[in-house]
Design brief:
The protein is an all-alpha fold. The chain contains 17 helices and no strands. Helix 9 runs antiparallel to helix 14 (311-325) and helix 12 packs across helix 15. The radius of gyration is 21 Å and the shape is globular.
């Protein structure tokens, strides 16, 4: 009889990288359920709450590509560790905040930490997995936002009842610190970690500018980034306006939170499927065409006057919208890695993609909100999102020529 106890299996490094992305996204999802509490306890206004939501995107919108260059230059594992460290510290300090201003400043730093993690993940996965498994891994990587934000939306209200909003902040900080420790211990060090640094600051600046020039001078990263912007602006707008649908249906607070969380998490289905489908030989263009077609049809179902008296049909359409459209980011992360002009600028390419994605998320919801205000309701929302889907299809056609 074998008396040697079996050792517990350790999570592979690539799984830890994916979990790091989900942990970073948890910091995005921790705020929305806390807004009513922050309004009561700190006097946060709706305008300030809106800025707290959007400040996380500000760093990506203004400097995504540059942060990607810095991640490529410093080392991908080191960048993930730095990002997790920033998120841990800001969440700890956030629990001690006594004003909206303090939370706003910390939220800006959280955006920087979030970007360091999410820009570095795809490039690090490329180093950790074989070429045969890369599409599947990147498909799963695309789930980080749906998993992280959905988890925050789902469990945040309940945990805040038990711990208060400060305890909720500190709990997420503890989870992030554990994740940082696991990455530090289990993910292989960057190849350059043990190499001595050389060169002047000016040489480093020239290297950064050279990486930016490579990305901005290549059509592939531009096209992938614009497609992501067309997708992300739609997704955030539809998910963000869900409470309007629920209110019209006569639903109340706690159920609204659960339904919104399920809609966000549904995005994971498409993300995960995209990698499997790419590995099975389905073309990226076909997946992107299908994703944008479904987005158009389901937003019409969710917002058209024709379905005004069918709130549960509208919600079902939103679930299909979120789940099927999830193939788009999964495919785009794969294309960003594939169309990067050089292996040394993968994070820069992903950074440029997320920079335009952040721009889409920053601009599209206010425009759709303004359209709803002008039309006196959400019945024209599908027309606006349909135009973005049409733009996405045109850009996908251009990408096809590069492939």
């Amino acid at each position: 009889m074998n008396t040697i106890a079996a050792r517990p299996r350790r999570l592979p490094p690539e799984i830890l990288v994916m979990l790091a992305g989900i942990t970073a996204a948890l910091h995005i999802g921790k705020l929305p359920p806390a807004i009513p509490v922050l309004q009561d306890e700190l006097g946060v206004s709706l305008v300030q709450a809106g800025f707290m939501l959007s400040l996380v995107q500000l760093a990506g919108m203004l400097a995504g590509a540059l942060i990607g260059v810095l991640a490529d230059s410093a080392g991908l594992r080191r960048s993930i560790l730095t990002g997790l460290g920033i998120l841990t510290l800001t969440s700890v300090l956030g629990g001690f905040a006594s004003s909206a201003t303090e939370l706003l400043v910390l939220r800006g730093f959280e955006g920087f930490g979030f970007l360091l993690v999410t820009l570095s993940g795809p490039g690090l996965l490329r180093q950790l997995v074989t070429a045969e498994k890369l599409s599947v891994s990147l498909g799963w990587w695309g789930c980080y936002m749906g998993f992280g934000t959905g988890t925050g939306l789902l469990i945040g209200p309940w945990l805040m009842q038990q711990l208060g909003w400060q305890g909720w902040w500190w709990l997420i900080a503890a989870v992030t610190l554990v994740m940082l420790s696991l990455v530090l211990l289990r993910v292989p060090a960057d190849q350059r970690d043990n190499n001595p640094r050389s060169g002047s600051p000016m040489a480093g600046l020239r290297a950064i500018l050279a990486r930016l020039k490579i990305i901005l001078g290549s059509p592939g990263p531009w096209l992938v980034a614009m497609i992501f912007a067309a997708y992300s602006g739609q997704w955030l707008s539809v998910i963000g306006f869900l409470p309007s649908i629920y209110t019209q249906a006569g639903l109340e607070g706690s159920l609204v939170g659960v339904l919104t969380a399920f809609a966000a998490v549904a995005n994971v289905v498409g993300n995960a499927a995209s990698g499997r489908l790419l590995q099975a030989g389905v073309g990226p263009r076909q997946l992107l065409y299908f994703g944008f077609a479904v987005m158009t049809l389901t937003t019409w179902t969710a917002f058209s006057d024709v379905t005004a008296d069918l709130p549960w049909l509208r919600y079902a359409a939103v679930l299909v919208f979120s789940s099927v459209s999830g193939v788009i980011p999964g495919v785009l992360f794969s294309l960003a890695v594939r169309l990067a002009p050089d292996t040394s600028v993968v994070s820069t390419a992903v950074g440029w993609m997320l920079q335009l994605s952040a721009l889409g998320q920053f601009v599209t919801p206010p425009l759709i909100g303004a359209l709803a205000g002008w039309a006196g309701g959400w019945q024209l929302t599908w027309a606006a999102t349909g135009c973005l889907s049409a733009l996405g299809v045109v850009l996908v056609t251009r990408v096809g020529r590069l492939l």
